[in-house]
Amino acid sequence: MADAALRILIADDHPMFRAALRYALGEIAPGAHIVEVASQSALEAAIGSGEAFDLAMLDLMMPGAMGFSSLVYARGERPELPVVIISSNEHPRTIRRAQQFGASGFVPKSAPAAVLAEAVGAVLAGRVWFSPQQAERDEGDAQLADRLAQLTPQQMRVLLRLADGLLNKQIAYELSLAENTVKIHVTAILRKLGCHSRTQAAVLVKGLSLEEDGGELHDGVGGLS
Fold it and tell me: Which regions form coiled coils (predicted)?
């Protein structure tokens, strides 16, 4: 799988796990160019930079993210970019939801390096890689994914900040937009999502949260040895 041109994006807020994942990927794809980010805003900057990544390795819990929001954003901005979720939350429904929201693979942080290599190889070959132990398809998640897919990347950025309770002027400042532009985006977001208020839209985004946030711990570093 060695390819000096391979470009991989690692998104995880834990420095030790990023280091372990970088080492493991170095064994899997020697010479690969690896970019690391540690927050939702940094992920947005990296994906929005136009760099031609071949693969993204994404944690579900980073500052500024809400459960699967980073995955939904990445898929909306760069639908051609395969995303592999690397998570300590190994609940079957979490794995199934990752697949429904567009991930190409899911690797538990406790998995050995051989499993990571298998998953990365499969995804880079254009296949998907998921544990056979998954929950049944959830129609509610499928409908939520379809509704969110209607949003543009910029609208998704606005929605995530709206869900955090930010006012239009705060969103405008954070995204370097005119306040009136934010208002236009909010109106379009509510229309596309079929929501009548900002509160209703925020509640909808909460559907991206993990059921068991307590299970999303950064304790899987040793699994990549």
Answer: none
Could you give the residue ranges of the DSSP H alpha helices within the chain? 15-28, 40-48, 69-77, 92-100, 113-124, 139-148, 153-163, 168-175, 179-193, 198-206
Beta bridge partners of 201: none
Q: Tell me how long the chain is.
A: 225
CB 55 within 8 A of CB 8: yes
Residue 105 has pLDDT above 90, yes or no: yes
Domain enclosing residue 55, as ranges: 1-225
Q: What is the pTM of this model?
A: 0.76
Number of structural domains (the chain) is: 1
- For 22-55, the pLDDT digits (tens) are 999 988 988 899 999 999 999 999 998 888 999 9
Can you give the CATH number for the domain in which 55 is found? 3.40.50.2300
Other residues' Cβ atoms within 10 Å of the Cβ of residue 135: 14
Residue owning tokens 């132990």:
133
pLDDT in tens, 124-171: 999 999 976 655 666 777 788 888 888 988 898 899 889 888 999 999
- Amino acid, single-letter form, for residue 133: Q
Phi and psi at residue 56, in whole multiples of 5°?
A: -120, 135
- Asked if 48 contacts 81 with a C-beta cutoff of 8 angstroms, the reply is no
